[in-house]
Design brief:
The structure is a single chain. By secondary structure, the protein is α+β, with helices and mostly antiparallel strands. It has 31 helices and ten strands. It has a six-stranded mixed beta sheet. Helix 10 runs antiparallel to helix 11 (292-317) and helix 21 (578-593) packs antiparallel against helix 22 (597-610).
Length: 776
């Protein structure tokens, strides 16, 4: 008889005995007779039907689920015939077995939840709960004896699957190295845990050495994620944008055991890429060896292998890349300690050579720069090529587009509706910047010669503001207000020294610099602004006509959206100076403070005319309308601003202000929904919106928060545009990609910055950084 049958019969006998007992009690307590009948019937059913295998077969479908193998649960044991030995009472199941603890999963949770990872890890090891390899690494690092160890938190990087430790404080080098040493040992312990079955009983030292020796051949931990795929759409294959994106994604996704902090520069046309990466000092390898000389060997070996890995990623980014220079620098400095110049064939030769060399011995030769100090540490070297060298990053790539009359590339024209490159311009003063740069070379060293040069330049200037600048600086030189040797003051006077610009700066200092202004103070500043604005007003300098439209843009994204949505016909768009927009903004502010709201509204609407896509102009107009109790007009203005918003932050601000306007109109549900929309759009607005929403809900118990879907329905039902965030991201991405591929980095960088605010991605951050002129 099987064990299952014996157990079933034993249970039945117990049930039958219990029934008999109740019979005796039933004689005394007749009311239990019905219960007795039920118990006896159940006992009979158990005896009749609970045969070996029958109960399991009949109840397998509704049995408790069995977790998959590998999650700390025991597998069912089968007998020789394949039948499960697990038995189960058909009417009374036992509680499922508590899963076995998984120390590695518990470690992950502990690290993620800790506000002081080093202290938590030491506590874990001291209490004997750490896995064996982790314990050995911690003990070898000397971490248990550290005094005043830095506080650090940790996050698991999605792309690489590795731990990244960080501190909220600026750490000195010694503490930084300690933090990185702990990061390294955590990642080594993680790798060792998942290699355990494959490596068998290999010594820990051998396993760690194998991990460190293999980093030059690592592949990305994950495929390009959704964000990277979105960012790559529409990019030219192997072009500037796609190459930068691919190198950044490779570096962020490489599962090396210690952080990769890298930056890059690319010039696809010349087939060159430069990657700068942080390499670790020997102290970071404390968990690998207690010996200082050995740690120095390991650090050198690791630095070279990291260079090999990053070069491999750069070559893989584009077939058009023929040369890659990788510079490795220590934390806190940009001076390299290793610099290697790679070709495609040279890379493979170096990898083969590294495979034959003992740890710490690095290849030497042309295109390889490294030296060691007396203690074996890598010493500073000159880079073979730096990211800012003219060979890869000529400053011409960042020349402003405002004076570029070349036809836009097909991709730029499709993404922005620009006819010429100048149709992307937003900086009115750029024409004076270019004129100054041209003039600076022939001013000479005497006042007389400089004045003559400026007078000659004034007569041939085609731009009115350049002619005025030449006259302004000449007069200042003659009057002794500026010295010919003070080129910085001369440049500022030339570019920013107009009467209106000077008035705006002075008013800003007086009004914003100190509180407690009297009405007389405000009136005086307002009079100064009016005087400075008078020449433009008298000549209608910035009024649209049949040939020109005058517009102001606060960002490149605003200009792109304006181009896509507004048809100026055959009229030329001319840029309005920053100071003209700023003067009307200041006048609005001063008049609101003086209670003269109708006059303030006139200045706000002048800014709306010249800057219809600038959110700040809308908000100033809304403020005036609110003061005049013209709330419905304010609501309409904010609705239009949401439709025209060129970035997510500004859209969030519009919803935030609209929520208050809806509350003033008594539209409680719309108010709540708009606050919620503002909160979900941008973190900068979230706290203020949440606080005000809390006040609204506390004041009206009929109102409550909505679900995401409900809030959207309320907003749309009120005729409020919901705000198409995806459309904004796509618009900015397309423009950024097109400008990058065309090599117009002066436009590509600000667009990438706007895109970064909307997407918030590490890879995009690397691309954005690469688009700047990274001079030391």
């Amino acid at each position: 008889m099987s064990n299952g049958s014996k157990q079933n019969k034993a249970r039945a006998r117990l049930v039958f005995a219990a029934g008999c007992t109740l019979c005796i009690c039933g004689a005394l307590l007749a009311q239990f007779s019905e219960l007795l009948s039920i118990v006896l019937v159940v006992a009979g059913l158990v005896l009749a039907f609970n045969k070996p295998g029958v109960a399991r077969e009949q109840h397998v479908d509704d049995a408790l689920p069995v977790p998959p193998e590998g999650l700390g649960t025991k597998k069912c044991v089968e007998d020789e015939g394949g039948a499960s030995q697990q038995t189960e009472d058909p009417l009374r199941r036992e509680c499922p077995e508590v899963p076995a603890r998984d120390p590695h999963e518990e470690l992950d949770s502990l690290i993620l939840r800790s506000s002081d990872v080093i202290a938590s890890l030491a506590d874990l090891v001291r209490h004997g709960d750490a896995e064996d390899n982790l314990r050995k690494l911690v003990e070898r690092s000397g971490m248990l004896g550290w005094q005043g160890a830095p506080r650090a938190e940790a996050k698991m990087l999605t792309r690489s699957g590795r731990w990244w430790l960080f501190s909220k404080d600026e750490l000195p080098d010694a503490d930084y190295d300690r933090m990185v040493a702990v990061e390294l040992l955590l990642n080594l312990a993680d790798e060792l845990h998942y290699r355990a079955q494959a490596e068998g009983d290999s010594p820990l030292e051998d396993q760690v050495s194998k991990i460190l020796a293999g980093i030059d051949g690592l592949e990305p931990f994950s495929e390009p994620d959704e964000a990277t795929r979105f960012l790559s759409e529409g990019a030219e294959k192997g072009g500037e944008w796609a190459t930068r994106l691919a190198i950044a994604d490779f570096a962020e996704s490489l599962p090396v055991p210690v952080r990769i902090d890298a930056s890059l520069q690319v010039n696809v046309a010349d087939g060159i890429a430069v990657v700068d990466a942080e390499v670790q000092r020997p102290a970071a390898f404390a968990a690998v060896s207690p010996d200082e000389a050995t740690r120095a060997d390991i650090a050198r070996d690791y630095a070279m292998r990291l260079c090999l890995a990053l070069a491999r990623g750069a070559f893989g980014a584009s077939e058009r890349i023929e040369r890659v220079v990788v510079n490795g620098h220590e934390h806190g400095t940009r001076t390299p300690v290793i610099s290697v110049d790679f070709t495609r064939t040279g890379l493979e030769h170096l990898r083969d050579e590294m495979a034959e060399l003992p740890a710490g011995e690095l290849p030497r030769g042309l295109g390889i720069r490294w030296f060691t100090s007396a203690d074996g540490r890598l010493a500073p070297v000159d880079p073979i090529m730096a990211k800012w060298d003219d060979g890869i990053a000529p400053l011409s790539r960042w020349t402003g587009v405002e004076q570029n009359r070349l036809a836009a590339t097909p991709a730029i024209a499709a993404a922005t509706k620009a006819r010429t490159m100048s149709d992307l311009g937003i900086n009115e003063k750029y024409v004076r910047i270019e004129a100054w740069n041209e003039a600076a070379g022939w001013l000479g060293l005497s006042t007389r010669r400089a004045v003559a040069a400026f007078e000659a330049r004034r007569h041939k200037a085609s731009d009115r503001t350049v002619a005025e600048a030449c006259e302004r600086v000449s007069r200042a030189l003659v009057e002794g207000k500026v010295d010919v040797f003070d080129r910085q003051s001369m440049a500022f006077l030339f570019v920013e020294g107009g009467e209106l610009a000077t008035a705006v700066r002075d008013v800003a200092v007086r009004i914003n610099g100190k509180p407690g202004h009297t009405s007389e103070d405000l009136e005086a500043e307002l009079a100064r602004l009016y005087k400075a604005l008078e020449p433009a007003a008298q000549t209608a300098r910035y009024e649209d006509d049949t040939e020109n439209v005058f517009r102001y843009f606060n960002s490149m994204a605003e200009r792109v959206r304006y181009n896509l949505e507004v048809d100026n016909g055959n009229r030329e768009l001319r840029l309005v100076p920053d100071e003209y927009y700023a003067a009307h903004s200041q006048a609005t502010q001063l008049l609101v403070a003086l209670g003269r709201h109708e006059e303030a509204l006139a200045h706000a609407r002048e800014n709306m005319r010249i800057a219809p896509y600038t959110t700040d102009a809308v908000l100033a107009e809304v403020r005036c309308l609110e003061e005049l109790s013209r709330i419905y007009e304010a609501v309409d203005a904010l609705k239009l601003a949401i439709e025209r918003a060129s970035n997510v932050r500004e859209m969030s601000i519009c919803f935030y202000r609209l929520a208050f306007m809806e509350w003033k109109l008594g539209h409680g549900p719309a108010c709540v929904a708009c606050y919620q929309r503002a909160m979900e759009l941008h973190g900068e607005i979230r706290e203020r919106a949440a606080r005000e929403l809390g006040d609204v809900l506390a004041a009206d118990n009929k109102l409550s928060k909505f679900s995401h879907v409900e809030a959207r329905e309320v907003i749309l039902a009120e005729g409020i545009p919901y705000g198409d965030v995806d459309a904004i991201r796509t618009m900015i991405r397309d423009a950024a990609v097109a400008c990058t591929d065309a090599g117009v980095l002066s436009a590509a960088r600000p667009l990438a910055g706007m895109l970064l605010e909307a997407v918030g991605d590490d890879v995009l951050q690397d691309v954005f950084t690469s688009l700047g002129p990274s001079r030391p």
